[in-house]
Amino acid sequence: MEILVWGVGAARAALVREGEAVPAAELPQAVVAAVEAATGGDWTDAWVVRVRATEEDGDAATRGDPAVLGFAPEGELRARELRQALASYHGDNPWEDVVLRAPGYDAAATEAADPGYRSDVAVLADGYRVVYDGPSGRWVACDPDGREIA
């Protein structure tokens, strides 16, 4: 799984130092907000990297590193962001206008999950998904095992 790790200053964790820098334009809004809250909007020493690790390995590798502000599975962050975008959408075609443009959208995995093309599930990176719950009339973000994430 790919996780995003963000922080400020020199990181001690090898996992972070070996990660791939993520350009600011590609960051989920939750990460931007967390970094800006911690730095007062000054990105001079801030960084965000993408690493391939389990969430548990990420936690173990970064625990105690004062430079690390946080980390989360990228797919989870993207699913939350897509859920929010769909919840606030007021146009005529959420699939075309929102889902197909979502960072991390996986067309092949979505087709496999929705062979009837009902447009009620969108699959993202690492199997995270956003599913339309008809009875409640809301979009729900889920982890790869189908459990709802807050």
Q: Count the strands?
A: 7
Largest sheet: 4 strands, antiparallel
Q: Please state the overall shape, judged from the principal axes of the Cα atoms.
A: elongated
Q: Beta-sheet strand percentage?
A: 15-25%
Compute the separation of the termini in Å.
19 Å
Could you give the order of strands across the largest sheet? Answer: 2-3-1-4
| Poorly predicted ranges | none
| SSE arrangement, N to C | EHEHEHEHHHEEE
Helix content: 25-40%
Whole-number mean pLDDT: 94
Number of domains: 2
CA-atom Rg in angstroms: 16 Å
Structural class: alpha+beta
Quick recap:
This protein has 2 domains: 2-73, no CATH class; 76-142, no CATH class. The protein is an alpha+beta fold.
Descriptive key words:
alpha+beta, 150 residues, single chain, three-stranded antiparallel sheet
Overview of the structural elements:
The chain is α+β, with helices and mostly antiparallel strands and 150 residues long. It folds into 2 domains: 2-73, no CATH class; 76-142, no CATH class. It is built from 6 helices and 7 strands, in the order βαβαβαβαααβββ. It has helices spanning 14-17, 29-39, 55-62, 74-87, 94-97, 107-113, and strands at residues 2-8, 20-21, 46-52, 68-73, 121-123, 129-133, 138-142. The strands form 2 sheets. The chain has a 4-stranded antiparallel sheet with strand order 2-3-1-4, with helices on both faces. A hairpin with a 4-residue loop joins strand 6 and strand 7 (138-142). The protein is elongated and about 50 Å long.
